[in-house]
Fold this protein.
Amino acid sequence: MSDHVSRETPPVPVAARGVFGERLELAERYAELLVDQATVRGLIGPREVPRIWERHLLNCAVVTDLIPTGSTVADIGSGAGLPGICMAIRRPDLEITLVEPLLRRTKFLDEVVAELGLVNVCVHRSRAEELHGKRFFDVVTSRAVAPLGRLAQWSWPLCGPNGEVIAMKGASATEEIDRDAKDLERLGVVAEVELVGAEALGSVEGPGAAVTVVRMRRVKS
């Protein structure tokens, strides 16, 4: 990968203003850090650079449409900060903990948090299961971390009494729910597929664009 590719930040799409509003400048700086440092360090693949806004920043940010005001959020397996950093930029009312076990990733995340001045974010180096019984959150998020059944086992114990899991998934979300139904049942969790951000993303990706998430909630007795 050439230096030119690693530092070529794509133009900001018009939709980004609607998604990030007055915090767009922070999102732009984060995009630069992803394209530059995250790519150089192997946290983002070079092929992702041209679609850093559409596939990453905007897709992650719109998931906050589902999160209540003032929520505590754990983003497990945060990697380069997707979706957690995007959520924190768009929603400064959220208190976000980025949970990531790998040192090279947490170093990058610490740098991003400091660079952007994100006072609503803390970085915690550990595996999600190491926090079981110690920390509880209103919402637990993740993106491309693990198959749904395993992800539920890692995520659900971090949810508070009225908490929920919001996992970013792709077109196979329904199949994953069906496949891992027994694991979800053992945890006392009901899962459903939901689409979010169609209006915001439509102008960028075309009509019908939306982010697919799986929401997991406690089974009502």
Summary: The longest helix spans residues 24-40.
